[in-house]
Amino acid sequence: MPSQETPVDLSSGALRAVSPVHRQYMRNMGIASSLSVAIHSSTGLWGLLSSHKQNADVLTQSGRDSVVTLVRVATQRLFLLKAEAAGRYREQIHQQRTVLAREVQERGPEQILAEHAAEWLQLFRARGVALVYRDQTSRHGCTPMDSQLLDLSTWLAEQWRELNPWATACLAQTGYPKSGDISCGCCGLLAMPLVIDVTTRGWLLFFRREQVEIIDWAGQPRKIPERVGDQLRLTPRQSFAVWREELRGQSLAWQPAELAAARDLGDDLAVLASAHEVTRLNERLESEGEALARANDHLHELAITDSLTGIMNRYRIEHLVQVALANAERYGQAFSLVLFDIDHFKQVNDSYGHDEGDRILKTLVNSLVPCLREGDQLGRWGGEEFMVLIPGTHLGGATEFAERLRARVVATDYGLRDPVTVSLGVTEWFPGDSLKDLLVRADSAMYRAKKAGRNQVFTDNSKEHD
Ligand SMILES: Nc1nc2c(ncn2[C@@H]2O[C@H](COP(=O)(O)OP(=O)(O)OP(=O)(O)O)[C@@H](O)[C@H]2O)c(=O)[nH]1
């Protein structure tokens, strides 16, 4: 045979020399003939059927072929059973995914896990399942504690950047530094990374407890090398006496089908989690938007309202007069203004106090509001001075209205010894008027009413005579 670097694969060779180690083994075991048939699965050597005989015996070709055929038939049956079991498992996982697909976005991943935990524990032959994301944990069954789960997921995120599941039957052998702190007895971990959004990662974690495995070998299976001269030689097993091996610190191994199932369920859970996040975010934005709109309305209301009397403030009534002016210029819509001021209000304050003065202001406003027609606008011009904008009304009608206001003020009971009266100035819009023109005329009319003895209505129609 030509010398070469790599050993020659003789697995399918029918006739080949028996290795010296095997001959030694046969001598050790006191056997003179042996027959071994390899069992291959799609992924490689799966097992070996081995039989021995004490006396030397030559198996005929047909005898050998029969044994090989029998092994093949049995192997096929075995793999068929395994494939059926895998099919049933896939079907169960498929059912779980169908259920998840029907989940509504109102339910968070924690709730979904809580509902399915029992089934998933059974499907994954696990003792505990946990979900870790956004520094929150939710767990079911036998799992490490919350702080340990957070620590474990941080470590996993550093170690495992892939989007496939990561699994071990023995956490202590993975290099996880805090595996000794985990006291729940779980040593097997299947961890599926969840991609919730660009920045948020989570973990779906399944835990298995230690499973002490006792294996009875036909003889010590490990071949121990022995030094012969300056060479190392393998010493094959010495007898068929049962050699018992006890495997500790390991969980059941995670099967490829279980890893695939964890990936499918994890992906579904991640999709549900991100859909849930989007729904929550929208709800929050909506309610924040509504709160903001309410706050804006409130601010606007505050900005245009007189805090003492609750009617419009000067800013607002002045704005409305400007709007009326623009409409009057464009469409010729008439309007009038009444400006009035409480007479000797300083005396009211001086005699009864400022609080009492405030009360008079409020009482006066309340008594006047019922006199207003729809469209009339009453505002506080400042201090004890008020303005009424009367749309669609000429000077005559506005003067009658002002007179009614005056009479109403006098007729109102303020609970004071002295009567409360107002002096009123009335003016009407004329084409070409500016806001200032209107205000000057209304003010001068009111001033003349004061001058004439107060508690009177005066008009300023000076423009009419211009
Ligand atoms: N209580 C109270 N008083 C106010 C308020 N705003 C203005 N005043 C008072 O109203 C009074 C107005 O006094 P003056 O401008 O001298 O006028 P008057 O006493 O009403 O006299 P005439 O206008 O000439 O009839 C002052 O004493 C102000 O302090 C207010 O919101 N509350």
Automatic annotation (TrEMBL):
Phytochrome chromophore attachment site domain sequence ranges: 1-52
The keyword Hydrolase appears for this protein: no
The name this protein goes by in its record: diguanylate cyclase
SUPFAM superfamilies named in the record: GAF domain-like, Nucleotide cyclase
Biological process (GO), any one: detection of visible light
Lineage: Bacteria, Pseudomonadati, Pseudomonadota, Gammaproteobacteria, Cellvibrionales
EC top class, as a word: transferase
Organism: Kineobactrum salinum
Record PROSITE patterns: GGDEF, PHYTOCHROME_2
